[in-house]
């Protein structure tokens, strides 16, 4: 009944939990709460500067003053980025996971290949694709020219740069989603497929009525990770276009306003809170819908 003993020893697990709790409060919860507080002030990134509360002025400035038009465009662009990345990344990851789960020869090699971009890091990925998409000497432009007689500016194009960033984002993180789907697929009991085969079900019917319902928790996890990751992405943008060529997102705006803009910290804090609220809304909706599917099956 008491695996850690009786008396004071019963509190040993709580002491172990206390350390990560303190670290969480210091490095995550505390700064998050300060960001919310700062969003209602005119705080500046200057030691010794005075601080006073300005109410909702910073939130008003996010949408209705200065370069608010660019911020609204960033919000719309971020939502577009999130939708495309979430759908395409999870769709491709599920397809690859299903194929690898067929016990192909060398399946561990394929897993490593698809997961490799995840461990490379943003700097390496950005460097690789900047070289691949080099408009003068990149191999992709040679391929475009040879097949279609067409050349592109890639990360230097006002119309196509954001699309290429979406491609790089999906390429980098699809392997992570694939492993989660693969773990879910391997947990499905084989006797269910055998029973379905005896009943004469096709492969599509087996996937629809057996596989898909049983890997619904994997879908939930991947959807949440994709939404949060896409809404928070700024590092790939920073490393490839630095926000130029219509590629700014909310996360990049927070970075830019904080470290490259004015010394005011209230406005980027308000923008961070708005970003958090948008992420929260989509996460709650996604969890609610995906949980329904899990309960149904």
TrEMBL record:
The keyword Transmembrane helix applies. It is found in: Cell membrane. It is a multi-pass membrane protein. The chain crosses the membrane at residues 12-30, 79-100, 112-133, 153-173, 212-238, 265-287. Gene3D superfamilies: MetI-like (1.10.3720.10). InterPro entries: ABC_transporter_permease, MetI-like, MetI-like_sf. Residues 75-286 form the ABC transmembrane type-1 domain. GO terms for biological process: transmembrane transport. The keyword Methyltransferase does not apply. GO terms for cellular component: plasma membrane. Keywords: Cell membrane, Membrane, Transmembrane, Transmembrane helix, Transport. PROSITE patterns: ABC_TM1 (PS50928). Belongs to the binding-protein-dependent transport system permease family. This is Sugar ABC transporter permease. It comes from Paenibacillus agri.
């Amino acid at each position: 009944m008491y695996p850690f003993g009786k008396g004071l020893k019963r509190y040993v697990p709580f002491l172990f939990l206390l350390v990560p709790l303190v670290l969480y409060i210091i490095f995550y919860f505390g700064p998050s709460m300060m960001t919310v507080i700062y969003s209602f002030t005119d705080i500046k990134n200057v030691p010794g500067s005075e601080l006073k509360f300005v109410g909702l002025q910073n939130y008003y400035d996010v949408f209705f003053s200065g370069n608010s038009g660019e911020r609204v465009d960033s919000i719309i662009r971020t939502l577009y980025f999130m939708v495309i990345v979430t759908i395409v990344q999870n769709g491709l990851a599920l397809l690859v996971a299903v194929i690898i789960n067929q016990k192909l020869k060398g399946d561990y090699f394929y897993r490593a290949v698809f997961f490799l971009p995840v461990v490379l890091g943003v700097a390496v990925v950005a460097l690789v694709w900047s070289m691949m998409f080099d408009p003068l000497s990149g191999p992709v432009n040679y391929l475009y020219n040879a097949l279609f007689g067409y050349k592109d500016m890639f990360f230097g194009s006002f119309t196509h740069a954001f699309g290429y960033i979406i491609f790089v984002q999906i390429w980098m993180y699809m392997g992570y989603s694939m492993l989660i789907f693969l773990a879910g697929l391997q947990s499905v009991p084989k006797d269910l497929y055998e029973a379905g085969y005896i009943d004469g079900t096709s492969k599509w019917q087996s996937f629809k009525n057996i596989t898909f319902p049983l890997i619904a928790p994997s879908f939930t996890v991947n959807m949440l990770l994709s939404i949060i990751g896409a809404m928070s992405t700024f590092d790939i943008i920073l490393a490839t276009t630095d926000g130029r060529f219509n590629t700014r997102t909310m996360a990049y705006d927070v970075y830019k306003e904080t470290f490259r803009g004015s010394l005011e910290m209230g406005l980027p804090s308000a923008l961070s809170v708005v970003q958090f609220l948008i992420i929260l809304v989509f996460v709650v909706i996604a969890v609610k819908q995906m949980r329904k599917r899990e309960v149904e099956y």
